[in-house]
Amino acid sequence: QNVLNQSFGKIILSPLQILANIVILLMISVKLSLYTFIILPLSFYIIYKIGQSIRRRSRRVFQQIADVMQSFQEAVSAITIVKIFTNEQKEEKRFRKTNYLFFRKMFRAERLKIATTPVNEILMVLTLIVLLWIGGRMVYMNSGLQAEDFVRFLVFLFAMFKPIQEFSGVNNTIQTGMAAAERVMNVLEQPEETYEPPNAIVLETFKDRIQYEHVYFKYNPDDEFGLEDVNITIHHGETVAFVGHSGAGKTTVVDLLPRFYNVDQGRITIDSVDIREITLHSLRKKIGLVTQETVLFNDTIRANIAYGVENTDEAAIINAAKAANAWEFIQKFDLGLDTHIGEHGVKLSGGQKQRLAIARAILKNPPILILDEATSSLDTESERLVQEAIDKLMRNRTVLVIAHRLSTIRNANKIVVMDGGRVDQIGTHKEVYQKSAVYRTLYDNQLLAGQEKSPAFIENGATDA
Fold first, then answer.
1. Which DSSP helix (H) or strand (E) runs through 87?
2. Integer Cα distance of 42 and 48 in angstroms
3. First to last CA, the chain
4. In what helix (H) or strand (E) does residue 118 lie, and over which residues does it extend?
5. Closest C-alpha to 274, from 366, 201, 217
């Protein structure tokens, strides 16, 4: 903003003034001009090097500003934890230290900017002294330079000093602006999602199956593969539960379906069509998502339930809330559906937030549903209400469940056991319990929701437990 508002005119005007004065100086005396040009490049070189240093220091200043804001935001957002651990003084010291580092870096950058003018002035004074000596001798010895020409030369030389100083200041402003722009450009230059690739297919319906065919994926080009040779077939109407240790690749597998990321090798198909050949809009319209970390907006309950669904009426919103076991607590608010829930749903409990998220998914009515550990970290009553809502949500849909507990996978048609980015086993509870050491360990250690092992469960499978 400063570059455009304050320096844009000088960027054009100052170089033109310098060039015009150089031409006039050459017309007055070529010999004196050559002496001048020996010193002027040194001045421009110093301006250039100072500008480079200012850019580096400004980059550090902007990074430190981000650290200051992060320190402040963390302390404020976690104020309850800070208070309960009586850690106010430590947080204050941490903020003071971060802020002092910002002051030091800012001071160094500004000190360098301020130093530009006196450095240039010293060079100009030295230039003037040299020219006074050489020009005075030329006039005194009558060596091709008249006194009036020498005076004119000095006048235009002084006239050139001002645009040089202005150009130096402009360079400092530009370098600071470039350092600030780098942080913005790093975001703007990220590749955009291609919502409408050439000859893309609109996914009208989902009728048959989802297939992962020899899928390989890594988050960064230099990383190792997070998923390797993943082959999974999910038929229409099936409920498939993904189970495994933390970091096994469960979330990564399901995140590839709505194309939050693209596969590196292999392909994922819906009804035999590669999802990369389907428009993102139509693909994601067919997928619902309910996560453990519920995302709600600082708006009304009505707006949160109807998010992304256009032209919906109040009856549909109420029916979705009832199906998600959310209508009972919504009615208790004075404004009902028009109640503002605050930032991130701060006015609601964890179970209430999840039920609103489920209501949102029910209203969207997608044929494919992703449940990401949606019943974790809830009390017994909240989990019961949420589980009932999930059971209603899962009816007549194709469901991918990421789970750590048997309560969320007991009705699964098949279980996919992930281990180290690979598929360890696929089958029913009984089959994978017998074949997969990973699943058997998880089950025996009661990491799947703490249910006690039951011989009947193992014998009859997850559906009968």
1. none
2. 10
3. 65
4. helix 88-140
5. 201
In this structure, the strands spanning 398-402 and 239-244 are parallel
* CB proximity list for 441: less than 8 A, separation 6 or greater: none
As a whole number of angstroms, the distance between CA 399 and CA 290 comes to 11
What's the rounded mean pLDDT across residues 189-201? 75
The architecture that CATH gives domain 2-188 is Up-down Bundle (1.20)
Q: What pLDDT score was predicted for residue 36?
A: 77
Q: Where are the domains of the chain?
A: 2-188, 209-464
Q: Span 209-464: which CATH code?
A: 3.40.50.300
In whole angstroms, give the CA distance from residue 135 to residue 132. 5
**Kind and range of the H or E element at 12?**
helix 8-28
Check if the beta carbon of residue 368 is closer than 8 Å to that of residue 348: no
* pLDDT value of position 43: 72
Q: Of the given ranges (117-126, 207-216, 249-258), which has the lowest mean pLDDT? A: 117-126
What pLDDT sits at residue 267? Answer: 93
Amino acid at 168: S
Whether 310 and 363 have beta carbons less than 8 Å apart is answered as: no
Residue 10, Cβ density class (10 Å: 0-12 exposed, 13-18 middle, ≥19 buried): middle
What mean pLDDT is reported for the chain?
A: 81
What is the DSSP secondary structure assignment for residue 300, as one 8-state letter? B
φ/ψ of 426, rounded to 5, equals -130, 130
The more confident residue out of 207 and 195 is 207
φ, ψ of residue 244 in degrees (nearest 5): 165, 170
Q: Find all residues with CB under 8 Å of 7, minimum gap 6, and list them.
A: 169, 170, 173, 174
pLDDT digits (tens, 9 = 90+) for 241-274: 898 888 888 889 999 999 988 899 999 999 999 9
Whole-model pTM? 0.66
Instruction: Check if the beta carbon of residue 243 is closer than 8 Å to that of residue 415.
Output: yes
Tokens of 283: 């693909």
Dist CA 399 CA 104 (whole Å)? 55
Helical axes 314-323 vs 380-394, angle rounded to 10°: 120
Length of the chain: 465
Using the 8-state DSSP alphabet, how is residue 43 labeled?
A: H
Backbone angles phi, psi at 371, to 5 degrees: -110, 115
